[in-house]
Design goal:
single chain; alpha+beta; Aminopeptidase; five-stranded mixed beta sheet; 5 strands; 40% helix; 24% strand
Amino acid sequence: MSEALKAVIAYCFQTLKVSSITLDPKVDNSSSVALTEKEGFTLIGNKNHFGSEQLIYEMRVEDWERGRRGKKKSKSKKKKAEGSGNGGVEREEREAAVEEPRIEETKKTCRW
């Protein structure tokens, strides 16, 4: 699921050119909450939606870009440590089938 979320995030920021992404998982869905936090979303609030408590997370394009730069530096250091051989062949990313996100044009925000 992590790879799918990363692909959706990249699609929203690179292709759709949104300025932020908002996710609102249910409080009791610990897997979704953990994945959202792992990918770098920031908790900005909570709400009661149709009788269910939900957390509201946001990621801004600036935060995503900053995180990507940090990860690229970490990967290049790791590759130097491993040497120049091709011992760790990188796996091709799989295309994830995701539902088309709804875009709020006024805010340039992508929301699920």
